[in-house]
Amino acid sequence: MKDSSRKQGAACPCAACKLLRRRCGQDCVFAPYFPADEPHKFASVHRVFGASNVNKMLQDLPEHQRADAVSSMVYEANARIRDPVYGCVGAISSLQQQIDSLQTQLAFAQAEVVHMRMRQLSSPENASPSSGNTQSRRATRSLFNMDMVVDQTDMDDSIWP
Amino acid sequence: MKDSSRKQGAACPCAACKLLRRRCGQDCVFAPYFPADEPHKFASVHRVFGASNVNKMLQDLPEHQRADAVSSMVYEANARIRDPVYGCVGAISSLQQQIDSLQTQLAFAQAEVVHMRMRQLSSPENASPSSGNTQSRRATRSLFNMDMVVDQTDMDDSIWP
Protein backbone atom coordinates (compact mmCIF):
# COMPACT_ATOMS: atom_id res chain seq x y z
CA MET A 1 0.00 0.00 0.00
CA LYS A 2 2.83 2.31 0.87
CA ASP A 3 4.44 1.95 -2.54
CA SER A 4 1.25 2.52 -4.45
CA SER A 5 0.59 5.63 -2.39
CA ARG A 6 4.05 6.95 -3.12
CA LYS A 7 3.75 6.29 -6.84
CA GLN A 8 0.38 7.96 -6.72
CA GLY A 9 1.97 10.88 -4.84
CA ALA A 10 3.51 12.55 -7.84
CA ALA A 11 0.40 12.55 -10.03
CA CYS A 12 -2.22 12.77 -7.29
CA PRO A 13 -1.61 14.10 -3.78
CA CYS A 14 -2.59 12.02 -0.72
CA ALA A 15 -5.84 12.89 1.08
CA ALA A 16 -3.95 14.94 3.68
CA CYS A 17 -1.99 17.06 1.22
CA LYS A 18 -5.10 17.54 -0.88
CA LEU A 19 -7.06 18.85 2.12
CA LEU A 20 -4.14 20.99 3.30
CA ARG A 21 -3.52 22.20 -0.30
CA ARG A 22 0.18 21.45 -0.15
CA ARG A 23 2.61 19.62 -2.39
CA CYS A 24 2.68 15.87 -1.70
CA GLY A 25 6.39 15.03 -1.79
CA GLN A 26 8.10 11.64 -1.91
CA ASP A 27 8.77 11.92 1.83
CA CYS A 28 5.20 12.87 2.82
CA VAL A 29 4.55 11.34 6.27
CA PHE A 30 0.79 11.16 5.65
CA ALA A 31 0.73 9.56 2.18
CA PRO A 32 1.18 5.89 3.22
CA TYR A 33 -1.78 6.06 5.63
CA PHE A 34 -4.15 8.56 4.05
CA PRO A 35 -4.71 7.52 0.42
CA ALA A 36 -6.52 9.93 -1.90
CA ASP A 37 -9.52 7.61 -2.21
CA GLU A 38 -10.31 7.77 1.53
CA PRO A 39 -10.55 11.50 2.18
CA HIS A 40 -12.84 11.13 5.26
CA LYS A 41 -10.04 9.45 7.29
CA PHE A 42 -7.77 12.48 7.22
CA ALA A 43 -10.68 14.91 7.48
CA SER A 44 -11.67 13.29 10.81
CA VAL A 45 -8.24 13.27 12.43
CA HIS A 46 -7.53 16.78 11.16
CA ARG A 47 -10.77 18.04 12.67
CA VAL A 48 -10.14 16.46 16.08
CA PHE A 49 -6.36 16.38 16.52
CA GLY A 50 -5.19 18.92 13.95
CA ALA A 51 -2.86 18.11 11.04
CA SER A 52 0.30 19.33 12.78
CA ASN A 53 -0.37 17.18 15.87
CA VAL A 54 -1.01 14.11 13.69
CA ASN A 55 2.19 14.85 11.78
CA LYS A 56 4.15 15.18 15.04
CA MET A 57 2.64 12.01 16.54
CA LEU A 58 3.55 10.01 13.42
CA GLN A 59 7.08 11.45 13.25
CA ASP A 60 7.63 10.45 16.89
CA LEU A 61 6.83 6.78 16.13
CA PRO A 62 8.87 4.15 14.32
CA GLU A 63 7.46 3.36 10.88
CA HIS A 64 6.15 -0.11 11.80
CA GLN A 65 3.83 1.38 14.44
CA ARG A 66 2.40 4.22 12.37
CA ALA A 67 -0.39 2.28 10.62
CA ASP A 68 -1.80 1.15 14.02
CA ALA A 69 -1.46 4.68 15.39
CA VAL A 70 -3.39 6.06 12.42
CA SER A 71 -6.14 3.42 12.83
CA SER A 72 -6.56 4.23 16.51
CA MET A 73 -6.53 7.99 15.85
CA VAL A 74 -9.18 7.63 13.11
CA TYR A 75 -11.32 5.52 15.48
CA GLU A 76 -10.91 8.06 18.30
CA ALA A 77 -11.61 11.01 16.02
CA ASN A 78 -14.78 9.42 14.61
CA ALA A 79 -15.98 8.66 18.14
CA ARG A 80 -15.40 12.29 19.16
CA ILE A 81 -17.25 13.57 16.08
CA ARG A 82 -20.19 11.23 16.81
CA ASP A 83 -20.23 12.12 20.51
CA PRO A 84 -18.57 15.51 21.10
CA VAL A 85 -19.05 15.31 24.88
CA TYR A 86 -17.68 11.84 25.71
CA GLY A 87 -15.92 10.64 22.55
CA CYS A 88 -14.62 7.10 22.92
CA VAL A 89 -14.53 7.53 26.70
CA GLY A 90 -18.30 6.95 26.43
CA ALA A 91 -17.58 3.51 24.93
CA ILE A 92 -15.12 2.75 27.76
CA SER A 93 -17.72 3.65 30.34
CA SER A 94 -20.36 1.50 28.64
CA LEU A 95 -17.96 -1.48 28.38
CA GLN A 96 -17.10 -1.14 32.08
CA GLN A 97 -20.81 -1.27 32.92
CA GLN A 98 -21.15 -4.42 30.82
CA ILE A 99 -18.23 -5.97 32.70
CA ASP A 100 -19.83 -5.13 36.06
CA SER A 101 -23.08 -6.71 34.92
CA LEU A 102 -21.35 -9.85 33.60
CA GLN A 103 -19.32 -10.21 36.81
CA THR A 104 -22.50 -10.05 38.88
CA GLN A 105 -24.25 -12.63 36.66
CA LEU A 106 -21.19 -14.88 36.78
CA ALA A 107 -20.97 -14.64 40.58
CA PHE A 108 -24.66 -15.65 40.86
CA ALA A 109 -24.26 -18.56 38.43
CA GLN A 110 -21.12 -19.77 40.22
CA ALA A 111 -22.79 -19.48 43.61
CA GLU A 112 -25.68 -21.55 42.29
CA VAL A 113 -23.28 -24.23 41.03
CA VAL A 114 -21.54 -24.36 44.42
CA HIS A 115 -24.90 -24.50 46.20
CA MET A 116 -26.11 -27.36 43.99
CA ARG A 117 -22.87 -29.29 44.48
CA MET A 118 -23.17 -28.90 48.25
CA ARG A 119 -26.74 -30.21 48.10
CA GLN A 120 -25.62 -33.16 45.99
CA LEU A 121 -22.91 -33.93 48.54
CA SER A 122 -25.36 -33.95 51.42
CA SER A 123 -28.12 -35.85 49.59
CA PRO A 124 -29.05 -39.29 51.02
CA GLU A 125 -27.82 -41.21 47.96
CA ASN A 126 -24.28 -39.85 48.45
CA ALA A 127 -24.32 -40.77 52.13
CA SER A 128 -24.13 -44.54 51.42
CA PRO A 129 -20.75 -45.93 52.55
CA SER A 130 -20.07 -47.73 49.25
CA SER A 131 -19.79 -44.73 46.88
CA GLY A 132 -19.72 -41.79 49.31
CA ASN A 133 -15.98 -41.26 49.68
CA THR A 134 -14.99 -41.19 46.00
CA GLN A 135 -17.88 -38.99 44.97
CA SER A 136 -17.35 -36.64 47.89
CA ARG A 137 -13.68 -36.14 47.04
CA ARG A 138 -14.44 -35.50 43.37
CA ALA A 139 -17.14 -32.95 44.18
CA THR A 140 -15.02 -31.12 46.75
CA ARG A 141 -12.17 -30.83 44.28
CA SER A 142 -14.35 -29.26 41.57
CA LEU A 143 -16.09 -27.05 44.12
CA PHE A 144 -13.10 -24.73 44.19
CA ASN A 145 -12.48 -24.92 40.49
CA MET A 146 -14.55 -21.94 39.45
CA ASP A 147 -12.51 -18.84 40.20
CA MET A 148 -13.26 -15.82 38.08
CA VAL A 149 -10.29 -15.22 35.81
CA VAL A 150 -10.62 -11.56 34.93
CA ASP A 151 -7.66 -9.47 33.92
CA GLN A 152 -8.05 -6.12 35.63
CA THR A 153 -4.66 -4.78 34.50
CA ASP A 154 -4.70 -1.13 33.48
CA MET A 155 -8.35 -0.86 34.43
CA ASP A 156 -7.75 0.84 37.78
CA ASP A 157 -7.85 4.34 36.33
CA SER A 158 -11.05 6.17 36.99
CA ILE A 159 -12.43 7.93 33.93
CA TRP A 160 -13.35 11.00 35.89
CA PRO A 161 -10.75 12.82 37.99
CA MET B 1 -15.51 26.60 40.82
CA LYS B 2 -16.44 28.64 37.79
CA ASP B 3 -16.80 31.83 39.84
CA SER B 4 -13.54 31.36 41.69
CA SER B 5 -11.76 30.78 38.37
CA ARG B 6 -13.23 33.94 36.91
CA LYS B 7 -12.27 36.03 39.95
CA GLN B 8 -8.83 34.51 39.77
CA GLY B 9 -8.72 35.38 36.05
CA ALA B 10 -7.89 39.03 36.47
CA ALA B 11 -4.99 38.58 38.89
CA CYS B 12 -3.79 35.17 37.69
CA PRO B 13 -4.45 33.71 34.23
CA CYS B 14 -5.95 30.23 33.87
CA ALA B 15 -3.62 27.33 33.06
CA ALA B 16 -4.49 27.57 29.35
CA CYS B 17 -3.83 31.30 28.98
CA LYS B 18 -0.64 30.95 31.02
CA LEU B 19 0.67 28.23 28.69
CA LEU B 20 -0.44 30.10 25.58
CA ARG B 21 0.95 33.40 27.00
CA ARG B 22 -2.23 35.30 26.29
CA ARG B 23 -4.45 37.61 28.32
CA CYS B 24 -7.06 35.70 30.34
CA GLY B 25 -10.22 37.74 29.85
CA GLN B 26 -13.54 37.55 31.71
CA ASP B 27 -14.98 35.57 28.79
CA CYS B 28 -12.11 33.05 28.55
CA VAL B 29 -13.64 29.72 27.44
CA PHE B 30 -10.86 27.71 29.13
CA ALA B 31 -10.76 29.37 32.56
CA PRO B 32 -13.71 27.50 34.20
CA TYR B 33 -12.19 24.11 33.35
CA PHE B 34 -8.43 24.67 33.46
CA PRO B 35 -7.58 26.36 36.77
CA ALA B 36 -4.07 27.72 37.25
CA ASP B 37 -3.26 25.14 39.93
CA GLU B 38 -3.74 22.19 37.54
CA PRO B 39 -1.42 23.09 34.65
CA HIS B 40 -0.94 19.43 33.52
CA LYS B 41 -4.60 19.15 32.44
CA PHE B 42 -4.33 21.81 29.77
CA ALA B 43 -0.79 20.78 28.83
CA SER B 44 -2.11 17.28 27.97
CA VAL B 45 -5.09 18.33 25.86
CA HIS B 46 -3.01 21.02 24.14
CA ARG B 47 -0.34 18.45 23.25
CA VAL B 48 -2.82 15.93 21.82
CA PHE B 49 -5.73 17.98 20.43
CA GLY B 50 -4.21 21.45 20.12
CA ALA B 51 -5.50 24.54 21.91
CA SER B 52 -7.53 25.83 18.97
CA ASN B 53 -9.33 22.49 18.52
CA VAL B 54 -10.14 22.34 22.25
CA ASN B 55 -11.38 25.92 22.07
CA LYS B 56 -13.58 25.08 19.07
CA MET B 57 -14.94 21.88 20.64
CA LEU B 58 -15.89 23.77 23.81
CA GLN B 59 -17.47 26.65 21.89
CA ASP B 60 -19.60 24.15 19.94
CA LEU B 61 -21.10 22.70 23.16
CA PRO B 62 -23.67 24.16 25.54
CA GLU B 63 -22.09 25.28 28.84
CA HIS B 64 -23.61 22.47 30.93
CA GLN B 65 -21.79 19.83 28.84
CA ARG B 66 -18.37 21.46 28.75
CA ALA B 67 -17.05 20.12 32.09
CA ASP B 68 -17.77 16.51 30.99
CA ALA B 69 -16.22 17.18 27.58
CA VAL B 70 -13.06 18.52 29.25
CA SER B 71 -12.87 15.48 31.57
CA SER B 72 -13.18 13.07 28.68
CA MET B 73 -10.64 15.02 26.58
CA VAL B 74 -8.14 15.04 29.46
CA TYR B 75 -8.63 11.27 29.93
CA GLU B 76 -8.19 10.64 26.20
CA ALA B 77 -5.15 12.91 25.97
CA ASN B 78 -3.44 11.24 28.95
CA ALA B 79 -4.13 7.81 27.43
CA ARG B 80 -2.57 8.93 24.12
CA ILE B 81 0.49 10.34 25.91
CA ARG B 82 0.93 7.08 27.88
CA ASP B 83 0.38 4.93 24.78
CA PRO B 84 1.13 6.91 21.60
CA VAL B 85 0.20 3.98 19.33
CA TYR B 86 -3.18 2.91 20.69
CA GLY B 87 -4.27 5.66 23.11
CA CYS B 88 -7.53 4.84 24.84
CA VAL B 89 -8.48 2.52 21.96
CA GLY B 90 -6.04 0.12 23.69
CA ALA B 91 -8.26 0.22 26.79
CA ILE B 92 -11.36 -0.43 24.65
CA SER B 93 -9.71 -3.44 23.07
CA SER B 94 -8.66 -4.81 26.47
CA LEU B 95 -12.16 -4.30 27.92
CA GLN B 96 -13.68 -6.11 24.93
CA GLN B 97 -11.36 -9.05 25.57
CA GLN B 98 -12.46 -9.11 29.22
CA ILE B 99 -16.10 -9.14 28.09
CA ASP B 100 -15.43 -12.07 25.74
CA SER B 101 -13.74 -13.97 28.55
CA LEU B 102 -16.55 -13.23 31.04
CA GLN B 103 -19.21 -14.26 28.50
CA THR B 104 -17.44 -17.57 27.96
CA GLN B 105 -17.13 -18.20 31.71
CA LEU B 106 -20.78 -17.27 32.22
CA ALA B 107 -21.92 -19.58 29.42
CA PHE B 108 -19.99 -22.46 31.04
CA ALA B 109 -21.36 -21.75 34.50
CA GLN B 110 -24.93 -21.47 33.18
CA ALA B 111 -24.55 -24.67 31.20
CA GLU B 112 -23.38 -26.42 34.36
CA VAL B 113 -26.38 -25.13 36.29
CA VAL B 114 -28.75 -26.37 33.57
CA HIS B 115 -26.96 -29.72 33.49
CA MET B 116 -27.21 -30.12 37.27
CA ARG B 117 -30.89 -29.18 37.26
CA MET B 118 -31.58 -31.75 34.55
CA ARG B 119 -29.77 -34.38 36.60
CA GLN B 120 -31.76 -33.43 39.67
CA LEU B 121 -34.98 -33.76 37.69
CA SER B 122 -34.09 -37.24 36.48
CA SER B 123 -32.72 -38.49 39.83
CA PRO B 124 -34.62 -41.39 41.51
CA GLU B 125 -35.78 -39.30 44.48
CA ASN B 126 -37.63 -36.90 42.14
CA ALA B 127 -39.30 -39.80 40.37
CA SER B 128 -41.52 -40.63 43.38
CA PRO B 129 -45.17 -39.81 42.61
CA SER B 130 -45.71 -37.87 45.86
CA SER B 131 -43.29 -34.93 45.29
CA GLY B 132 -42.31 -35.38 41.64
CA ASN B 133 -44.80 -33.08 39.94
CA THR B 134 -44.34 -29.97 42.06
CA GLN B 135 -40.56 -30.20 42.10
CA SER B 136 -40.41 -30.90 38.38
CA ARG B 137 -42.49 -27.86 37.53
CA ARG B 138 -40.41 -25.61 39.78
CA ALA B 139 -37.15 -26.83 38.29
CA THR B 140 -38.36 -26.49 34.70
CA ARG B 141 -39.48 -22.95 35.35
CA SER B 142 -36.09 -21.89 36.76
CA LEU B 143 -34.25 -23.78 34.03
CA PHE B 144 -35.01 -21.00 31.57
CA ASN B 145 -34.43 -18.22 34.02
CA MET B 146 -30.76 -17.61 33.32
CA ASP B 147 -30.56 -15.62 30.11
CA MET B 148 -27.51 -13.47 29.66
CA VAL B 149 -28.55 -9.84 29.89
CA VAL B 150 -25.76 -8.03 28.06
CA ASP B 151 -26.25 -4.66 26.47
CA GLN B 152 -24.43 -4.75 23.15
CA THR B 153 -25.67 -1.31 22.04
CA ASP B 154 -23.03 0.79 20.32
CA MET B 155 -20.53 -2.07 20.53
CA ASP B 156 -20.94 -3.22 16.96
CA ASP B 157 -18.23 -0.95 15.63
CA SER B 158 -14.97 -2.67 14.91
CA ILE B 159 -11.95 -0.80 16.19
CA TRP B 160 -9.94 -1.49 13.09
CA PRO B 161 -11.27 -0.49 9.67
From TrEMBL, chains A, B:
Tagged with keyword Coiled coil: yes
InterPro entries according to UniProt: LOB (IPR004883)
Domain LOB, chain residue ranges per copy: 12-113
Keywords noted in UniProt: Coiled coil
Ranges of biased composition (kind: Polar residues): 120-137
Chain intervals for the UniProt region annotation (Disordered): 119-143
Coiled coil spans: 92-119
Family: Belongs to the LOB domain-containing protein family.
Protein name: LOB domain-containing protein 4-like
Taxonomic lineage of the native organism: Eukaryota, Viridiplantae, Streptophyta, Embryophyta, Tracheophyta
